[in-house]
Amino acid sequence: MTQSAQQQARRQQRIEELCAASLRALTGDAGLHYRGRRLYQGERRLPTLAPHLRIDPEQDDFADCRAAADGMALRLIHSDPALHRECCPEDPVERLVFELLEQLRVETRVPDDMPGMADNLNRRFRHWSRNFVDSGLTEGSLGMLVYTVAEVCWSRLMSRQLPEEIEDHIEIMRGSLVAELGAALRGIRQHRQDQRRYADHALDIARVVGERVRAERAQAGDDEDEEPAEAPSDAFALLLELEDGEGDEDGVAAATTGHSKTFEDAAQAYRVFTTRFDREVAAGSLVRRALLRENREKLDQATAEQAINLPRLARRLGSVLWEPRVDGRSFGEEEGRIDGRRLAQLVSSPTERRLFYRDQVKLGTDCAVSLLIDCSGSMKHHIVPVTMMAESLIRALEMIGASTELLGFTTGAWNGGRAYQAWMSGGRPRGPGRLNEVCHMVFKDADRSWRRARTDIAALLKPDLFREGIDGEAVDWACERLLARPENRRILIVISDGCPADSATNLANDPYYLDNHLKEVVARRTREGQVEVLGLGVGLDLSPFYRRCLATDMAQALDTHLFDEIVELIGGRHRR
């Protein structure tokens, strides 16, 4: 990830945090958040059903993003989804128009004391309108039909005059629609406060558009001598997601994912073909001691060159992890709670006032933090700065009294290894699930200090440890280790530069099988609430998988700004 791409990802994260906060404040729904640039309500993705609410982060500014959030908030507040589904037509074209009209209806419900919201939405619709024309979609009759209907309905519902250039642009098409849409346009204006009665008139408008589209397609199909008219998919390119939140979850930056049919057909029951060859090992035992010492010297030298300010990092971590705790009592106080042992002094010395005690409160941390490093092949190129970053966090966390673990995950072989061979020998049954031998490595456990484990941590620099990655099982394994700890707060930070990848599993199932399992694991652990699961992307935005995540650039120096962002992530101010 280039520096500019990283800055763009961070900017987008910040915008989504602000927009999500606005959505939660407006709707009162604490479960609303963005993940992978999509809006979620808990673990259910909310589709963007209106064209002018689609945002392009590379072109649209914060005002556009805020307007989209305002529009979604109004949709959640003022639209009954059950009634909407009941009225929604099946024809795709009619449904697109109907969805647009319902969104415009709820945008008329902006409270009078929120003129800024009305301005945001008005500006956003006009911006979308210009983009529609600039895209060339109005050059075809179908695109012009959609554009005209959208503009006329917006003008009628908002009681706003269209700009003169737009009126000139749509004059001919609007003239041909007046006779058919006149009564319906009056109806949507009159009944915009009543969703059911409004829907009747919106359906009339949608049917008119649908009939015109079907008639033009039929005419184009009958005329063999002429080029067919443009496909409706082209004309409706700016009208969005037909499926109710079931489209592909395309990630951003380099993170792409989708739906696994194999995973869904198994009712989201993840399968493992065999665990016979799986292992959990102390990472230091995989490397010769002489090589460990050599790697340790390299790490120490590289860390010294970075000059990381550990005391400052520890203070910043303490600001988000420290909690007040009772640490003894102070007796002989003149106010507080009565000390029963001193009541006799009240009899012998009535003027005595030092009969009380107070709890002594000190700041401390009751927290266990586990760092889980993806040891797949592509991480090999980033492992030195990643190790330095992990060690710096561990040392700073230990300075404030937190327990720490450093874990890693890889596979025992490339392309499936012995597990894949066993599957082949068994007749290659369909849908075998995971087809590789996992290797979970412990570089530092929670009961060892960094000083005692520092040599074993250097095993991360051994290149042949890095093979393939099965992230979902590794996250589950790390969470179970944390749950065995006595601390009240448990945090897992997954450091990865890509999606789960195992060639044998992907070939025998489908490409998104491991992706879907990782999503299921993270969603389940987040829902249970016993472990906070965070994603730290190395040159990648991991938001399609992790609700709270941060994209980093390990090609840059490990500076104060990077660690401040990690502290904010731990404190819960990223991807809430």
UniProtKB/TrEMBL annotation:
Domain of life: Bacteria
UniProt name for this protein: Cobalamin biosynthesis protein CobT
PANTHER family: NORD PROTEIN
Domain Cobalamin biosynthesis protein CobT VWA, chain residue ranges per copy: 363-570
Database matches in Gene3D superfamilies: von Willebrand factor, type A domain
InterPro entries attached to this UniProt entry: CobT, CobT_VWA_dom, NorD/CobT, vWFA_dom_sf
Pfam families: CobT, CobT_C
